[in-house]
Every structure is written in structure tokens, then in C-alpha cells.
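Worked example

This section walks through a single chain of length 237. The input is the sequence exactly as stored; nothing has been trimmed or padded.
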Amino acid sequence: MARSNRQRTSRRAVYETLRHKVLTLELPPGAALSENELAAALGVSRTPVRESLILLSHEGLVQVFPQVGSFVSRVDPAKVADAQFLREAVELASLEDLPEELDPELVDALRANLAEQQRPGLALEEFFALDEAFHQAILRLSGHGSAWATVVSAKGHLDRARRLGLYHTASPAGFAAQHVEIFEAVLAGDVTLARTAMRTHLRAVFDDVERIRARSPELFATDSGTVPVRRNIAVWE
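Given that input, the structure is written out below as C-alpha cells.
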């Protein structure tokens, strides 16, 4: 029983590690994945790596091609749009359910979060984590914090598109300013303004996708039937 528990823990740790590497672009879109190399890097056998790649393929983050190999999926604009639709529906609906008396601890946490977003020299991954925490806290203000897990599970392609946008932006200050606008509207009880500001903020990713796709089309999916050729680097034909 103890060995079985350790195996499950190992599989889960490998899956979470590989998923994190995909979402943070450490394993970039289109990258070829070697089970042997990944297993060696993580200090595990090939079995949990293979199982993790299968799970990631079910999420659309990895593609497995028989006789060719496994590859990190390129960012699919259609899946970005679907995840964005879900996220926008949940977050805008939550603003309609804000109570008249907001939880003071959550309000203080949001203020601290926004102050941290303004910190000079903030790394992009640090900003991304603060961004996630900000949106989750807004949901918690409305009493729908548990809905965040559903949003997170659906937005793998969206998160990669958002990160690409951040990495191709000189500074996240513009996004931080949008967060402030949303928060101030929430404090003022102006639901209409809060919803408008939130919608504008969330839809900025679409402009990022088009801008980056024009510059680096190889990062984005075009034809779901396209099969890569495995060479020293992944080549998509």
C-alpha cells in the first residue's frame, strides 16, 4: 500500500511539473518531448512521464503522433477563445453577485496585491501569479471562489497565450492599471463599470494572439491534422 501511494505521488508530481513547464513556456509550443530525456531530468522512470504526457494530451497541451513522437501542442486560437468565453462568463457574472458589505480581509488582500503589482523589477512570472490571485479574490468577494478551479482547469491554451502576451510586452503596467480600475469600480459599487473594465481587460488576450501570431506563426496551431516531422528540432509541415 505504501509503495502504491508513493507511485501515485510520483505520477502526480511529474504531471504537475510537466504541466507547469508547458504553461510557463519553459517547454515552448511545438517542442519535441523525449520520454527518456524527461525521465532523466526529473529523476524518475519513463512510466510516470508517459502517463503524464497522456494526461496532458487529454487537456490538449501535448500531442502524441504514432511513429513520430510527442510534442507540446502549439497554441490553438480556437481553444483560447473557448476558454476566454468561459472565463468571461464566470467573472462577469460574479460581479453581479457582489454583496453590499465587502469582506474587509479580502479587500485588504486585494489592496496588498495591487501594491505588489506596482513593485519595481517585478518578474513576469511573479506578475502572472499576482494576476491569478487578483481574479480569484474578486470571485471570492462575490462568494464564488470555488468556481476558480473550474476556470483554471479549462484555460491551459489561454494561459500560454497570456504569457506570450506578457513576454512580448515591455511592461505589465497596463494590465496592473486595468486591475486598479476594476477594483475601484467594485469598491464604488459600480457594477456596470466593473463589468465593462473586466471585459476589456480579459479580451486583451485576443489582440496579443493576433500580434504575436503575425510575428511568430510557428507558435500557433493552424490545421489540427498537421503532423510534425521529428528531427533535431520539431518541424511542422
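What to look for: The chain has a mean pLDDT of 90.
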